[in-house]
Automatic annotation (TrEMBL):
Keywords, in A-Z order: Cytoplasm, DNA-binding, Nucleus, Signalosome
Ranges that cross the membrane: none
Compartments in which it is found: Cytoplasm; Nucleus
Protein name stated in the entry: COP9 signalosome complex subunit 2
SUPFAM superfamilies: Winged helix' DNA-binding domain
Similarity comment: family membership: Belongs to the CSN2 family.
Annotated source species: Glarea lozoyensis (strain ATCC 20868 / MF5171)
Region (Disordered): 1-30
Top-level taxon of origin: Eukaryota
Domain PCI: 252-420
Subunit: Component of the COP9 signalosome (CSN) complex.
């Protein structure tokens, strides 16, 4: 071994010994804190109460606030919220916020706070949890307002606006949205392009509010403005919300084509975001296809085909299949056997129009061979009330799709047969055309002149649409000739 190698080896050994001796106590302390933290994590599933106690013991082991204390509090807060210990969760969350100023980095603290807020947002299923979540948002806004973290302030206010929207506190939503719009504007009042993503989230909230309150005028204005935002790369879920509300708006205007387009785009965006709302929007897409009276199966596209056999969408699949086959009995059976389908208010509001279309087509098909029938007979055959049968037939008669009369007194309908009248009109048109031809050829044409006394006969016969039996052509009497034979007498 060379002298240089000996020197390097000795230096490395001396350096290692020096560092180990100096940091021995500190590293030992870190190991104890780390062990306590991971021991608590192992207890989360089996004994959450004991795990909370262990997690809360981590900050006490630190000589000054640091990462492990922050992590311990974060885990304890989530468990407390899960167990319904909302007051303790709020208390320890307030303590956690004191770490964000100096103990942990800005990016890590922001990410952690967002994760906690997302966690409690998903777990808020009752009123107490909702109030706890509101306190979380309030403490977060107070904490980060002083640190001038505008990004987290915007995100938290958007979450708080969603909470107000879920509670249907539209006054609170309106107030928050006004503050958020102001924060996303430049000094001259125009939208700040650098905050385009937040602007779209705010638009999505406002659009949802107007959709719920059925304020279509404001909804349409914001919907069109949101689609014009080009300075952002929005999360697909946000575009899914905007397109879904747009589809509902078009449905209320009976603009089935645009509604179908919006629901398809909404489904595609929700699917990309992995949102469960894609299933509900797919149902809306199927509903719109039926309202359009389209023969195109909505499950034939590349995006929707994987969901054709999904049990959550099975009822709508059966419904559209029955609709496209004009099978009224199968259609009614699917609706009766899937009452939960109507639990969605939007589907319940619009499915009646589809049902009406199905029953109208069934009535037309059933009465086609009859000239007289009872309303009760139609009602029994289609299993629908007689009053609705009468209503459908009244609509068809007014719309001139059925030529008949309803006798309300004895509950019968008589269909007027216009086939003979149509034949007579056709014959009259035919004889008129022949009469015209006669006058053109034998009266007005050069070289043809009726013989003496033939005018009167010709005119008489012309009234029946025929020509006179004889005429004169260049001094020759005409006669009816056979096929391929001369048609005049010398």
């Amino acid at each position: 071994m060379s002298d240089d190698e000996d020197f390097m080896q000795d230096s490395d050994q001396e350096g290692y010994d020096f560092e180990y001796e100096e940091d021995d106590d500190e590293e030992s302390g870190d190991v104890d804190i780390e062990n306590k933290y991971y021991n608590a994590k192992q207890m989360k599933a089996s004994d959450p109460e004991a795990a909370i106690e262990e997690f809360l013991g981590v900050p006490a082991l630190e000589t000054e606030k640091g990462d492990w204390g922050f992590k311990g509090l974060k885990q304890a807060i989530k468990l407390e919220f899960k167990l319904g210990q909302y007051d303790k969760a709020v208390e320890h969350y307030t303590e956690l916020l004191t770490y964000v100023k100096s103990a942990v980095t800005r990016n890590y603290s922001e990410k952690s706070i967002n994760n906690i807020l997302d966690y409690i947002e998903k777990g808020s299923e009752d009123e107490k949890a909702g109030h706890c979540m509101e306190e979380f948002y309030s403490h977060t806004l107070q904490s980060f307002q002083s640190t001038n973290n505008e990004r987290l302030w915007l995100k938290t206010n958007i979450k708080l606006s969603k909470l107000f929207l879920d509670r249907k506190d539209y006054a609170g939503v309106t107030k928050k949205i006004r503050e958020l719009h102001a924060a996303c504007e430049k000094e001259d009042g125009t939208e700040d392009p650098s905050k385009g993503t937040y602007s779209l989230e705010i638009y999505a909230l406002e659009i949802q509010m107007y959709a719920e309150t059925k304020n279509n005028k404001q909804l349409k204005r914001l919907y069109e403005r949101a689609l014009k935002v080009r300075s952002a790369v929005p999360h697909p879920k946000i575009m899914g919300i905007i397109r879904e509300c747009g589809g509902k708006m078009h449905m209320s205007e009976e603009n089935w084509k645009d509604a179908q387009s919006d629901f398809f785009e909404s489904f595609r965006n929700y699917d990309e975001a992995g949102s469960l709302q894609r299933i509900q929007v797919l149902k809306y897409l199927v509903l719109t296809t039926m309202l359009m009276k389209s023969d195109i199966n909505p499950f034939e596209s590349q995006e929707t085909k994987p969901y054709k056999n999904d049990p959550r969408i099975a009822a709508m699949t059966d419904l559209v299949d029955a609709y496209q086959r004009d099978d009224i009995h199968q259609y009614e059976s699917v609706l009766n056997n899937n009452k939960d389908l109507l639990s969605d208010t939007f589907i319940a509001e619009n499915i009646d129009e589809v049902t009406r279309n199905m029953r109208t087509k069934a009535v037309q098909k059933l009465i086609a061979p009859y000239t007289r029938f009872n309303l009760a007979f139609i009602g029994k055959a289609l299993k629908i009330p007689v009053s609705e049968v009468q209503d459908i037939l009244g609509f068809l008669i007014v719309d001139k799709k059925v030529n008949g009369k309803i006798n309300q007194q004895d509950g019968t309908v008589e269909i007027e047969d216009n086939s003979d009248a149509e034949r007579l009109r056709a014959m009259q048109a035919w004889t008129s055309a022949i009469g015209s031809l006669y006058h053109t050829v034998f009266t007005d044409g050069e070289g043809f002149r009726p013989s003496d006394g033939m005018d009167e006969v010709g005119n008489t016969l012309n009234s029946f649409g025929g020509a006179g039996p004889r005429a004169v052509w260049n001094g020759h009497k005409l006669r009816k000739g056979g096929k391929g034979k001369s048609a005049y007498l010398p």
